Amino acid sequence: MSDPIEFWFDFSSPYAYIAAQRIEAVAEKHGRTVAWRPFLLGVAFRETDGRPLTHFPLKGPYSAHDMARTAREHGIDFALPEPFPVNSMVAARVFYWLNDRDPDQALAFAKAVYRAYFADGRNIGEPAVVLEIAVEQGLDPDDLKAAAEDPAVKEKLKQATAEAVQEKGVFGAPFMIVDGEPFWGADRIDVVDRWLETGGW
Amino acid sequence: MSEPIEYYFDFLSPYGYLGGLGIEEIAARHNRAVDWRVMLLGISVIKVMGLKPLPETPLKGPYLREDVPRFFRLLGVPYNPPGGGQMAPLPAARSFTWLKGRDPDLAKRFAQAVGRAHWCEGRDMSTPAAVAEIGATLDIDPAELTAAIETDDVKDALKRHVQHSIDKGVFGAPTFILDGELFWGADRLYQVDRWLETGGW
């Protein structure tokens, strides 16, 4: 049985949002599954560029334009939200808590969070908004409030981020690892497809 | 009559080299000309954006060292740079600038030959002598070239070209500007092709 494709992402990342709309279809085409792994991109930025992409001169404005253009190219609903970026910690914690109990539900939650932020412009950095989204998914708000504060869940996200950045060299989002081969960027989804098709080169 | 596609490159970038190969092929299919324009990552990346050079950036540098040869292999282009793959671009950039002022087509052929020598044939193009040797194969007088690139005229012209690229929003190599639209990255050649095909989206 083949290993799942690791899909490392941050709920605050537009390119990861775009990739999230496409990665499953690619995996399914090749009879593979996706392991959704949220992490805190801000921690990676401390090691590398020091700031989010859109904060840079030249590259910042280009990226904002390119995200929208790339979303349009693939027919994906997208608008760069305000505020941007936000701290995705609460959403990521809730994801990991859900994922331990019901991975399908965790995935539905993840997709709803992404849609809320990048299609509907809701501030997913606000714990109240994350809880709203979870309730809309039919989840119990008290369970989730507890989950977001649970030290074990906090530790899970911390560990996932450390695994990504310290062990696996993940420095951006989306970051896909296919049979140990790293691919960074939403624009490499087609290359991932080809890698799975051919077994690599 | 359509405007030429502007292709911005820095001699030190292997991705930039791949961009040059790809854009000529795409432009030919769409009956467009390509205007080769030199830029300097040392200015855009380090001075303007305040970033470290990519190869020196933690996490990103190691990824790059894996991604570049993989990209060359995907395109069937031999990857055989001298030493560690670094390059000092100024002699080549100045030579290109000097040539472009006299014969843009010759400048392009010179850039293609320098790129091929460095990235595919393992010849270090970081010195005036090395680029002059390439120039000689194109009937460019080596003594004339090495003298020209030491003049203030040529150095200033390069500075102007670099400033122009910054003014146009160019921060990376390769960058393609066509019909007012900017695309950054050798992995976006397919997107340039599609944009030319469809007129955009």
Describe the structure.
The complex is a heterodimer of chains A (201) and B (201). Chain A is built from ten helices and four strands. Chain A has a four-stranded mixed beta sheet, with helices on both faces. The model of chain A has no long low-confidence stretch (mean pLDDT 96). Chain A has 201 residues and is an alpha+beta fold. Chain A is globular. By secondary structure, chain B is α+β, with helices and mostly antiparallel strands. Chain B has one domain: Glutaredoxin (3-Layer(aba) Sandwich). The mean pLDDT of chain B is 97. The chains are: A alpha+beta (201), B alpha+beta (201). Chains A and B meet through helix 4 and helix 10 of A and helix 3 and helix 9 of B.
Question: Main attributes?
Answer:
A: 201 residues; alpha+beta; Glutaredoxin; 10 helices; 4 strands; B: alpha+beta
SSE layout and pairings?
The complex is a heterodimer of chains A (201) and B (201).
Chain A lengths: L4 E5 L4 H7 L2 H7 L4 E5 L2 H7 L11 H15 L15 H13 L1 H16 L8 H10 L4 H9 L1 H17 L7 E4 L2 E4 L4 H10 L3
Parallel strand pairs in A: 1-2
Antiparallel strand pairs in A: 1-3, 3-4
Helix pairs in contact in A: 5-6, 5-9
Chain B lengths: L4 E5 L4 H16 L4 E5 L2 H8 L11 H16 L14 H13 L1 H16 L8 H10 L4 H7 L3 H16 L7 E4 L2 E4 L4 H10 L3
Parallel strand pairs in B: 1-2
Antiparallel strand pairs in B: 1-3, 3-4
Helix pairs in contact in B: 1-5, 4-5, 4-8, 6-7
